[in-house]
Amino acid sequence: MSKYVIALYIRLSIEDIKVESMSIDSQKALLHKYAEGLAEDTEIIEYVDNGHTGLNFERPAVQELLNDVQHHKINCIIVKDFSRFGRNSIEVGYFTQQVFPLYNVRFISVADCYDSNEHKGDTGGMEVSVKYLVNEFYSRDLSMKTRTAKYAKMRRGEYYSNNYPYGYLSDNNGKPVIDKAVAYIVKMIFDLTIEGKSAQDIATILYKMNISSPGQYKAQRGKTGYNISNCKNWSRNSILNILKNEMYMGMYIARKQVVQDIGSRKMVKLDEKDWIKIPNHFPAIVSEDVFHKANEVRRKVKITSTTSQSYPLRGKVYCGCCNHNLHYMKRIKPIYACRYTVYDENEPCYMFDITIEELQGILFDIAYNRSKEILEAFNKSNGNEAHNDSDQVSEIEKKIAEYQQKKQKLYEKFVSEEISLDKFKSLKEQYNDEIYHCEQQRTI
After folding, report:
1. Do the beta carbons of residue 41 and residue 112 sit within 8 Å?
2. Which ranges of 245-389 does DSSP label H, i.e. alpha helix?
């Protein structure tokens, strides 16, 4: 690195906007002025996180900065104060005292009068440590007050998320208003349910009417984050989600999930009893009588258990035509089936399915061929191709793969309670012995 590269890190969170006057532009001006004359032949790079909390390091600009540090692209980092870099005392201390010295990166906090070049071999003293803690507890206290104020607004029905269900739009003040373009479809779904139509029947009717699904409709209106290919058709679940949503009868619903911990992005779903609900707070698309009658009819339909099933290939098998997840269907001979084109006979994957035995056979062939290619490449690179009998090694690899497959099927039988725990352990040990024996032969 020929030039002396100085990184200016600038951060402003939503809470900072409310209580602090140091804007993004002000921070830039301050840091640029400080960086001038710091070293000869310098290059200055800006890293800006606008609207991100300092309680964690899950910020795009700071991650980019740390990545550049790791690749030795940065000589010096300058921040307005420690709190701009982060408000988590442990993580800030880890980077300033452990990581940056390791990569020979100088760290400067202007307002705190801190320069790591003046504290080589020490931590900066008690004053710096106290500042770390003050910054963290200040942010946590501010986040707690902000969250308390938000929940108070929810209880008064004054907090709006702008993320409303199908059939509603957001007005200029963020309040929900009825979307007349599709509200009649919501009413139709409730009416058809009262007539005795199942969710699957309604999805088929809407598809034949060429009505866009909720996800497709949002994508057409320019909402980002919606992949039309993954919400191409109406489904049973999309119908049921509408029928169960109390907002359609004017119910205000909030606090369905909360942040697990201050500074974390992980959300935890709450039980319905802990939700905040205010009846008759929004314009209703259907009346309470229609809503309750439709759900009463829906509950009379016998619904099979929808408990989550665990199986080895869950979420890993996709349709080669429409690129959607194939659904695992438990039968006498379990299958993976494509459900996203179930209404359209013209689709190439219409009613497509594959048995789990066929799928495992395909995967075995792929794994076998791939392992054979890797083995041959390894032998060539080490000059041992003449020494090893290729056919014999391939046969051993095939046996190992077969026993691995037997172990997988054995586990599936145990999970589905087809065999006892004792039998599972006995057969598993037997297969492990066979695999060990094959591996010993392979190394001879």
Report:
1. no
2. 288-300, 356-381
pLDDT value at residue 20 = 47
Sign of CA dihedral 185, 187, 192, 197: positive
The residue behind tokens 């209703």 is 284
Give pLDDT, residue 299.
77
Nearest to 76 by CA among 112, 122, 37: 37
What local confidence, expressed as pLDDT, does residue 229 receive?
A: 46
Tell me the pTM.
0.47
Contacts for 243 with CB less than 8 Å, ≥ 6 apart: 189, 190, 193, 199, 294, 295, 298
Residue 168: closest CA among 230, 242, 256: 242
Instruction: Specify the DSSP class assigned to residue 121.
Output: T
The per-residue pLDDT for 186 is: 92
- Residue 301: both structure tokens together: 């339909």
| C-alpha to C-alpha distance for 433 and 218, rounded to whole angstroms | 56
DSSP letter for 118, please: G
Instruction: Check: CB of residue 205 under 8 Å from CB of residue 240.
Output: no
* CA neighbor of 53 nearest in space, from 264, 257, 255, 260: 264
94: left (phi over 0), alpha (psi -120 to 50) or beta: alpha
- In the prediction, which pLDDT does 15 show? 56
Residue appearing with tokens 């590269």: 5
pLDDT for 308: 53
Strand extents, DSSP E, 124-254: 168-170, 176-178, 252-254
CA distance 8 to 45: 6
Q: What is the pLDDT at residue 46?
A: 94
pLDDT tens figures, 357-398: 788 788 888 888 888 888 777 776 665 544 555 666 677 778
Identify the segments of the chain with pLDDT beneath 50.
18-21, 226-230, 304-306, 385-386
CA distances from 155 to 11, 143, 250, 282, 320 (A): 32, 18, 16, 14, 48
Q: Helices 421-443 & 390-415, crossing angle to 10 degrees?
A: 170
How far apart are alpha carbons 389 and 226 in whole angstroms? Answer: 54
Residue 224's SS3 state is: coil
The runs of H, that is alpha helices, within 14-59 are: 14-19, 24-35
